[in-house]
């Protein structure tokens, strides 16, 4: 018997009808002969509503109590989901993060998983029940307190359960058909990626692809969990995120388990967006991601002497801000001064500006410039490792479209560029075309007509 | 240092503003030098909203999952209350029923407390924090599952914590000033009772007084907990519910602790509704309660042979219905048949009728009559034990008002009568007057102008 972990997000369980629809899908998975563990998020916008309530009570809610509050959200969705399944004649049991053995450190609001001891979940499966686990939440042994895992927490819950229970596959259900070569709302000819390595997925997620959270991908990669990102509105095969170290047989088995009777790697002629060569040869480029959530800070007139960059980024590090790209201009010989630019989430912008300004005389820079009208585009593909000329092709495509590049940063399997925010969607389309990623048909963004 | 347990119901924490108001009251109690433990209900109508959601998913929700669902309600209110207190600069910690050691049996939806192990609550107090405990909820050790205590559960949580922590007093906050001699909405001259024995309170609660739940009073009585029922909208002294076995000093100490600087048994002339003789001599009558929630079933033409009543009530008992008054007419000698009438909650009426009808030929009765237009009035007072003529005075008052009595039932400290539903409020007023309970001023029903 195979074990499947499924994760359903808030939009999949937004109301009683959605919950019944999800329950039916879970029951079908069980009936197909699988053991099923489900990680579920809070209903629709309920987490935001609870946050609103907290802020009506106090501008800065105590972190322990905020976690206690927010975990009520999944408690509601998981109980409703379990009762929906039971009303369909199948045994189901809901478990809080604590009951499911999601042991974390004590950092409220952003706890890290330190151990997973899903004894009660395993017992429920052994007794033939479907286990419904609250996503996003955990439990600290030292304090005995409830914790939450922060952004993308429910994805992480699902992956951690899949790892601890040695599941055959971890299915991440969402409202799109899988991971696309680019955002289909911007690039109508973006096509669904059939398979992507977790390394490439990490780069895409880190550079703005919204479907999977980077943290869950990291966890899956470290523990060798095969992910299947797919739509909760149809039975199509989605995107398989595989570990580079996994064998072809392991991956194929995961796909078989997950898709049930759907033929593996079907060459169904009615699905022309499926690129047949993906099984034959690793594609050069997996996908292109864009991100409009970042801003750029330029530290102007920094004395070009050793240790200055370190000094600046030590100051920035104290704010906890997540720095992304860093560029240092060549120093002007005449002045002995240089400029250092870096990108960071807009939400961290004000704090970093304030902190740097306070240290201006200590560091000795001339001024700060803040720019929140930037867009980032990242081209990701493991094939870059063995293919020269990718950067040149990228820069040429952007040049021919009249799009100016402001910053460049590269890794082994990724090239990122910063442009003006209002050109990034044009950039995405020309790059998608230039690298031959356009499918033959327009992507169906929402297949939300039920099943 | 005294220890006070306070209970706040859903209407006291209905929104963010109410929560802040309650937090302020709790902080004041702490500042007065007391250790404070709070049992809190779910916000306003949120439990009903969760129930609605469950019924949208399935008509008969699985009891385990329903408890999981409903306990999200207090989780929200207690976390918000704790963060409100913390934002006022006082340490506070919220605890679920499980964390607070409310150990119950496994009967979901109506669990009974089997043990209270409030180690974490005690630790929080020892560290100077205010402990906020979720009312209504518990935990079964055998299954590891979350349970709920059923109707009046939050009152019971408060009393059980007060007993386990050996609190000096358990304050039950509500939207009225205390227990009244009669419902002030019906009897404008009803006056607040300053003190009432738990035995009398039990009879009042069992006969329709809504402010306290009978189960919490029973628990308090069994464990010697002194209750103080008072308004959350002012600082007035409310009603002390004392155990008959408690000494006068114990009760006075509880009152002193609870009222802080308010003089005990003040004879403040601005409070003329306070009857000065209540401290001198036990009053004949504590109060009068009415109840319109019951119906009457009459089993017509029962063979008057031994064992028939037992047979009927064994059948009724199987439905789980809570039978209240039972009256059997004298058998008509000519027929050898008798009628048996009993009252029960209207909500149980249909089930009992169906069950009895199914056994009609077995029992051999002629027919069933169902009457849901009855009202019950109960006169309660420990003074009845040593005073003859109470029944006669009651019946006379009703007769003179032209109110017909349909059933009568008595206990050592209570007389109950059943009348037509539409006469029960008139009955309440004339009885209240006949027994000298009318105060000199009209009662203030809602003092809800905040403070």
Largest sheet of chain A: 8 strands, mixed
Low-confidence runs of chain A (pLDDT<50, min 5 residues)? Answer: 261-281, 447-451
* Gyration radius of chain A, in Å: 24 Å
The helix tally of chain A amounts to 13
Largest interface, counted by CB within 8 Å of the partner chain's CB:
A-B, 38 and 38 residues
Function (chains A, B): Catalyzes the phosphorylation of the beta-carboxyl group of aspartic acid with ATP to yield 4-phospho-L-aspartate, which is involved in the branched biosynthetic pathway leading to the biosynthesis of amino acids lysine, threonine, isoleucine and methionine.
Domain ACT (chains A, B): 297-373, 379-451
Protein name (chains A, B): Aspartokinase
Biased composition (Polar residues) (chains A, B): 259-277
């Amino acid at each position: 018997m195979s074990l499947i972990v499924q994760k359903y997000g808030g939009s999949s369980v937004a109301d009683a009808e959605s919950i019944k629809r999800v329950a039916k899908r879970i029951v079908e998975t069980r009936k197909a002969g699988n053991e099923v563990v489900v990680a579920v998020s809070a209903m629709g916008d309920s987490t935001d509503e609870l946050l609103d309530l907290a802020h009506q009570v106090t501008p800065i809610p105590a972190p322990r109590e905020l976690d206690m509050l927010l975990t009520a959200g999944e408690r509601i969705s998981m109980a409703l989901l379990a009762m929906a399944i039971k009303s369909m004649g199948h045994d189901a049991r809901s478990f809080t993060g604590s009951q499911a053995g999601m042991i974390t450190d004590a950092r409220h609001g952003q706890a890290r998983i330190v151990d997973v001891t899903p004894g009660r979940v395993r017992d429920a499966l052994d007794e033939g029940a479907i286990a419904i686990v609250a996503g996003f939440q955990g439990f600290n042994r030292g304090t005995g307190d409830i914790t939450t895992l922060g952004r993308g927490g429910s994805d992480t819950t699902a992956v951690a359960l899949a790892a601890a229970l040695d599941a055959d596959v971890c299915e991440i259900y969402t409202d799109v058909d899988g991971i696309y070569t680019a955002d289909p709302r911007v690039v109508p000819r973006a096509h669904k990626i059939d398979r992507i390595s977790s390394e490439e997925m990490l780069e895409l997620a880190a550079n703005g692809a919204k479907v999977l959270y980077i943290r869950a991908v990291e966890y899956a990669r470290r523990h060798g969990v095969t992910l299947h990102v797919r739509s909760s509105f149809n039975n199509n095969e989605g995107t398989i995120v595989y570990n580079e170290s996994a064998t072809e047989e392991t991956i194929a088995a995961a796909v078989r388990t997950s898709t049930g009777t759907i033929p593996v790697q079907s060459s169904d002629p009615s699905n022309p967006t499926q690129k047949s060569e993906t099984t034959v040869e690793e594609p050069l480029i997996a996908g292109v991601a864009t991100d409009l959530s970042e801003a750029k800070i330029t530290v102007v007139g920094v004395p070009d002497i050793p240790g200055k960059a370190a000094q600046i980024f030590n100051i920035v590090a104290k704010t906890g801000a997540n720095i992304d790209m860093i560029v240092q201009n060549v120093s002007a010989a005449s002045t002995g001064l240089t400029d250092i630019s870096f990108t960071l989430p807009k939400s961290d912008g004000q704090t970093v500006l304030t902190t740097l300004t306070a240290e201006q005389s200590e560091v000795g820079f001339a001024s700060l410039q803040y720019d929140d009208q930037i867009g980032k585009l990242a081209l990701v593909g493991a094939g870059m490792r063995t293919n020269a000329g990718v950067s040149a092709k990228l820069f040429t495509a952007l040049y021919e479209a009249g799009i100016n590049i402001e910053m460049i940063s590269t890794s082994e399997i990724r090239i990122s560029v910063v442009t003006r925010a209002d050109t990034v969607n044009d950039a995405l389309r020309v790059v998608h075309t230039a690298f031959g990623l356009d499918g033959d048909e327009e992507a169906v963004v929402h297949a939300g007509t039920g099943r």
